[in-house]
Amino acid sequence: MMQINVMKDYQDLSRKAADCVAQQIKRRANSVIGFATGGTPVGMYAELIRMHQQEGLDFQQVTSFNLDEYVGLSTDHPQSYYHFMWERLFSQINILPENIHVPPGIFDDAEAVCRQYEAQIEQAGGIDLQILGIGQNGHIGFNEPRDTFTVSTHITELAEKTRKANARFFSSEAEVPHRAITMGIGSIMKARSILLLASGRSKAEAVKQIFSGRVDPHIPASVLQLHPHVMLILDEEAASLI
Ligand code: GLP
């Protein structure tokens, strides 16, 4: 079932999303949460930090898995997703470092690190709640539009549109890595529940495609139509075409 919440603006969207995460953690203190990067969840992370500091929301038993990372960026690179997560969330809550998982951007054996990431998710008991953003081209994690879905964690070539969209975080487009390591469509679909956030007019077309009634690997987010428990939290602009 797909539940849709249209919020009046980004702040409301962020609050609603943080509430969903908080509810999950209150229901089960040792929840496994899948976190996402990008601009969209930043407000939700700020709200989670506030809930931790002011309301005692407790992350001590939480385990986290991030969706993806740029290949070639080290953990201390300012644009790495590892660095982003520490800045925006992990350093300001009481999650234990040993319970945090972000796919590595630097490695020798790609196949081994991808296999290991899947095994770690499995050992943790699977993901209870997966947070997702959405690319303008309908990508989730870094699962780009392709002729087929890739099931498990893998290395992928970034679409030009994605590199352009993400160039705003780098000093130039040339600096945006060409490859990423990402959970696969199967890794995402195995999560027990999914929360997809989208904000702004630039996401409206991609959001509309989620409801196409067809599952199409050229619009990766369309696969969410097959998931039994998805919640979309949108602002009015992102929801404007549905
Ligand atoms: C990035 C991330 C995705 C994210 C998407 C949207 O490339 N890999 O996980 O959902 O693009 O990003 P933003 O929220 O900044 O629009």
UniProtKB/TrEMBL annotation:
Protein's pathway: Amino-sugar metabolism; N-acetylneuraminate degradation; D-fructose 6-phosphate from N-acetylneuraminate: step 5/5
Enzyme Commission no: 3.5.99.6
Sequence ranges assigned to domain Glucosamine/galactosamine-6-phosphate isomerase in this UniProt record: 11-225
Cellular component GO terms, alphabetical: cytoplasm
Pfam families: Glucosamine_iso
InterPro entries, sorted: Glc/Gal-6P_isomerase, Glucosamine6P_isomerase, Glucosamine6P_isomerase_CS, NagB/RpiA_transferase-like
Catalytic activity field: alpha-D-glucosamine 6-phosphate + H2O = beta-D-fructose 6-phosphate + NH4(+)
Claim: Repeat is one of the keywords in the record: no
Molecular-function GO terms, alphabetical: glucosamine-6-phosphate deaminase activity; identical protein binding
Highest taxon of source: Bacteria
Active site feature: 68 (proton acceptor), 137 (for ring-opening step), 139 (proton acceptor), 144 (for ring-opening step)
Function comment: Catalyzes the reversible isomerization-deamination of glucosamine 6-phosphate (GlcN6P) to form fructose 6-phosphate (Fru6P) and ammonium ion.
Family: Belongs to the glucosamine/galactosamine-6-phosphate isomerase family. NagB subfamily.
Family matches, as NCBIfam families: nagB (TIGR00502), PRK00443.1-4 (NF001684)
Protein name: Glucosamine-6-phosphate deaminase
